[in-house]
Amino acid sequence: MDTFLGFEAVLLARMQFAFTVAFHFIFPAFSIGLASYLAVLNALWIRSGDRIWLRLFNYWVKIFAVVFAMGVVSGIVMSYQFGTNWSVFSDRAGPVIGPLMAYEVMTAFFLEAGFLGIMLFGREKVGDGLHMVATAMVAIGTAISATWILSVNSWMHTPQGHVIGENGQFLPADWIGIIFNPSFPYRLAHALTAAYLTTAFVVGGVGAWHLLRGNHDNRGVRRMFSMAMWMAAVVAPLQIVIGDAHGLNTLEHQPAKVMAMEGHFESHPDGAPLILFGIPDQAAGEMRYSVQIPKLSSLILKHDLNAPLAGLDTIPDDEEPPVAVVFWAFRIMVGIGFLMLGVGAWSLWARWRGRLYDSPWLLRAAVAMGPSGFVAVTAGWFTTEVGRQPYTIYGLLRTADSASPLDAAAVGASLIAFICVYFAVFGAGVVYILRLMAHPPERGEGDAEDIPGPIRSGGMHTPEDVTS
Q1: How many helices and strands, by DSSP H and E, does the chain display?
Q2: Of 162, 240, 300, 438, which shows the fewest CB atoms inside 10 Å?
Q3: CB 453 within 8 A of CB 58
Q4: For residue 127, what are the CA distances in angstroms to 30, 76, 268, 271, 410?
Q5: Burial class (CB in 10 A: 0-12, 13-18, 19+), 335
Q6: Buried b / exposed e along 48-60 (16+ C-beta atoms within 10 A)
Q7: Phi/psi zone of residue 266: left (φ > 0), alpha (ψ -120 to 50 degrees), beta?
Q8: What is the helix (H) or strand (E) element at residue 21, kind and residue range?
Q9: How would you write 214-259 as a 3-class SS string?
Q10: pLDDT tens-digit profile of 160-214?
């Protein structure tokens, strides 16, 4: 059997795609939320004339530019793997996924690219009004991009609206059914709220960092932290509700994935326990050293303590996903979600007491949670994609039948090259972003527009605006 360092070519191809897509999606997850945040900051500046909003916009727009660029580059590299490592999948599914990905380029990417330059450099040339339109178009473009990509990915999980031709290709028969497949609305809502939470905790972490360093008099720092905590307090509980609905949809269409997420190797005819922790032993078909809450899984998934739930003992062995990866990735995602909920609730308590900016332990918690969104998003993608195995198109096309006929050594060598280049290039980009975040938004942030002078939007200066 052809292997490289003990790994078969198909597994190496999966590892390569998992590495590149996990690395890629942390940038869109940030840029989607950050683009909307910039649109809000720009609107507040134009409406109020308060230069603190402009100062925050100029502070975060530089970070957005770097994040956006790294997202585009990593996405282009990832897409080439459809032709190199997954040519059979591309041939079979191309008539369906090809047009959808082309729509993403023609609508979202062109929209973003067309207005990005105006957003970054055009305020002095086009005025605040058109600059606001450009900023809004970039924010809308990022959301449209996520919409098309998630439609493609959701169709692979819950395929419908197609017919299979004589040569085995998936041919579109109902584009509305393909685009709005059963899992798409839940996955889109879950991904967008995850992006907003990711951005909120980055912004909140940066604000908390500067507050801990003594920048309590910096109004920009205080406002960014306050806005981030409002977002956490509002969106974190909403995300949990959306996640629950998404889980129920997954149980309906991909029950084996939910069995792996819950760690249910055995069926439970009279109510299934919620397994908090344990060590999955897939070979033996059991969960070792488990910590359980009786019947709670049935209550969550069926809204009935005594509802029966099937286990992996009802699934053929060759159709089971890798349980350990799915089980632990799901717990990481959910655990971070509840930590986000806790920080949001804590911030409301501190705000009510008038201690939002001088609660040291809340600020430390916000700093610690700064990168949590990226971890949760990555864990969520591992849950959903590994949980789909052994299929690329669920129930219809197996992963082993989707890969290109490549030698394991060739795939392994390219994987090593990707790892080295990604950590070198994107590692440098991340270091640069952290350096930008390391100083607080200050007077003069951005360009010459942030100096005392007339405000074009019609607002009036106050002494605080000029001196802050």
Answers
A1: 16, 8
A2: 438
A3: no
A4: 27, 33, 64, 63, 53
A5: middle
A6: ebbbbbbbbbbbb
A7: beta
A8: helix 9-48
A9: CCCCCHHHHHHHHHHHHHHHHHHHHHHHHHHHHHHHHHHHCHHHHH
A10: 999 998 888 999 999 999 999 999 999 999 999 999 999 999 999 999 999 999 8
> 202 near 36, Cβ under 8 Å?
no
DSSP SS3 for 50: coil
d(CA 153, CA 159): 10
Are the beta carbons of 404 and 88 closer than 8 angstroms? yes
Residue 307, token pair as written in the block: 């509802």
Query: Chain-centre distance of CA 386, in angstroms?
Result: 16
In terms of Cα–Cα distance, which of 386, 358, 347, 53 is closest to 200?
347
Euclidean distance between the first and the last CA atom of the chain, given in angstroms as a whole number: 69
CB 148 within 8 A of CB 100: yes
Using CA atoms, how far apart are residues 175 and 422, in angstroms rounded to an integer? Answer: 36
Cα gap 430→375, rounded to integer Å: 15
**pLDDT tens-digit map of 414-456:** 889 888 988 888 889 889 999 999 988 875 554 444 433 333 3
pTM of the model: 0.89
